[in-house]
Amino acid sequence: xxxxxxxxxxxxxxRAGGNVQKGQPxxxxxxxxxxxxxxxxxxxxxxxxxxxxxxxxSDGPTTRAKYLHGSxxxxxxxxxxxxxxxxxxxDRGAVYLxxxxxxxxxxxxxxxxxxxxxxxxxxxxxxxxxxxxxxxxRRWSICAVPSPAWAKKxxxxxxxxxxxxxxxxxxxxxARADGADPIADWETHKQNFVKRVDYLNKKAFxxxxxxxxxxxxxxxxxxxxxxxxxxxxxxxxxxxxxxNLPTEEIFTMPDRNxxxxxxxxxxxxxxxxxxxxxxxxxxxxxxxxxxxxxxxQEALASIIEMDxxxxxxxxxxxxxxxxxxxxxxxxxxxxxxxxxASAHLALGKAYPNNMAGGADMTVEERVAxxxxxxxxxxxxxxxxxxxxxxxxxxxxxxxxxxxxxxxID
Amino acid sequence: xxxxxxxxxxxxxxRAGGNVQKGQPxxxxxxxxxxxxxxxxxxxxxxxxxxxxxxxxSDGPTTRAKYLHGSxxxxxxxxxxxxxxxxxxxDRGAVYLxxxxxxxxxxxxxxxxxxxxxxxxxxxxxxxxxxxxxxxxRRWSICAVPSPAWAKKxxxxxxxxxxxxxxxxxxxxxARADGADPIADWETHKQNFVKRVDYLNKKAFxxxxxxxxxxxxxxxxxxxxxxxxxxxxxxxxxxxxxxNLPTEEIFTMPDRNxxxxxxxxxxxxxxxxxxxxxxxxxxxxxxxxxxxxxxxQEALASIIEMDxxxxxxxxxxxxxxxxxxxxxxxxxxxxxxxxxASAHLALGKAYPNNMAGGADMTVEERVAxxxxxxxxxxxxxxxxxxxxxxxxxxxxxxxxxxxxxxxID
Lengths: 409, 409
Fold this sequence. Notes:
The structure is a homodimer of 409-residue chains.
Chain A: H1 3-17, E1 25-31, H2 35-47, E2 52-58, H3 60-69, H4 80-91, E3 95-100, H5 112-125, H6 127-134, E4 140-144, H7 148-154, H8 160-174, H9 182-203, E5 207-211, E6 217-222, E7 229-230, E8 233-234, E9 240-241, E10 250-252, E11 254-264, E12 269-271, E13 274-284, E14 287-295, H10 297-304, E15 313-318, H11 324-328, H12 335-338, E16 344-348, H13 363-368, E17 377-381, E18 388-392, E19 398-403, E20 406-407
């Protein structure tokens, strides 16, 4: 991919994605193999006046080696200094940017209990930090770049260099970063969301009934005063940002006690290096009553059984089939892209901003109002070409607002 | 460089250098550009039973960008979590390995006051950690690999790929890692030091008078009960290790109050990205009375004026001209190699192990015994082909034990 194009993409992440302001520290999470791009992002961050850019380097093989060869107690441990580091940067008002290029098979063959324990230890220790991100008290944004392993996973029949090139093309198109002025394109993109979000927020449906041809038939109660969000988000300090590049979804908060019916996944879920395939769940009163998967069911179990909140829903998100990613008909093995191809639900923690005043409530107050809480937040796709969504109002009247995978305007 | 050769070099660092024992955590400092080699070292460390391998990634361009564009207060700040991280790993008994490939010109053009302040803040905050390393309470080892910038600095007339290849050859030869069994070669190398070190320790000279044809003429008092060390070191726990790959020096502790005369550097000193050239110092009662440099004198000043101990000597090291590095007649712009080409002195902190019982004394007790203390420890070369060293005994008798750059056996 040519350098000028990459620079525009890096700028999009810094200026539109994290919307870095003069004087803010920026933390960039980046794989050592993606240093060439991480340094571009870093340069853009200093260009807009970042006070400091901190690179948080990661390395897939290092992570894998630790899981395979590290001593067992490591996976129940999360050093306090790591928590203190997050607090140090949060107190200084850091913006978090992530360059993702994860190998979907990174943790294949690793002892699942090690992954589960490590995830639990990390999530418990960084709960405060996650809450800051999810309540938009700190801005953050994620974009993706190809790695050889990821590109070969998505395009197994292509030679490596060609696969990388093809994935770059898909990423930039999917992230609407392939035009002459991506930042302007994103401004337009954002405006297109406004009408749809306003419509749904005025409707203030009591519940949604969602059906697909592959077996999903579920009714989701929405929390009172729920807010539909889409096309970017607003920082607590009033500075807008885009947490995800790309973003094609509009989403809101289901009531943690009001999901009834069956959801059949329409795409595999790549979770911590394992691919969960052919899975479905049945809900009763908001809780997963039963579940199954044709492949990697134990990975699905490690999600659902993480804690009580992981058995309940934190997000319902709708995506039009006509989105650039939806049109690519490509499984990216990466939630950032796959969640924007199709409607999805999230098990686990809800975004407080999806409820009026949610960000200012305590966790207990939120839970009492139906807002789900958990150590994790995991999206999975269920949308299909023939999906239908019906909004049910307080008075019982029904409005079909999404038919055959497209919004009815 | 072929992979098998590199694997032997990585093994040398882990098994002979740090001498990693089963169940120990290992911290590997490595540039993101050297990940291919860092991962080999990591693999060897797990092979010998490391409990965890922690990669401390660094990136030259990131460091440079921070100095150029970071906000000014960063350079007086050293976050507490960084100190806590060191303590966390030290308490677990970590071994520290470093893969160095620094660009000698990394910080060229950077505001020297920023470098000086950052160095001071870092050294003050990590004083406890440095003391653990310098007293061998924690084992550590450094090796080098070429970077494009470093290779081009050493061999400016060669194309980049050739310069890298040539530097690899020099590094492996200099580190005695070019044979079929480098670990066995290092065992032999170590035995060769024993005779020389034993001889000097039995002599227990009161002082040394060192002269060279380019103007050095200095008398250095040695501390009482000084110990000559060379060809590896002994951990406090009785496990031997080699802090530096290569190592060709034997060294001991000058008395911090007893250096009188003039020292003329025989090689430039590459310090924090700046090359100090044509420099000399005059000592009186152990203290630098005056100094000058033909280039980058302000960098020399930033060393000498760091603190009182930086004006005094912490180490005198002798190297035979016939060492592999001495024979290469190459300026490496890297202390790890250049210090093994030639005799040198260090400004700043002394190694407590160079005095009988030193490692068990308090800093105050050591200083009272003539052992220098400082935030820093910086080596500079003064050895020449025609260097002569005379040992002066308590009774005033003189023994020439190094003549024309070679030890007299």
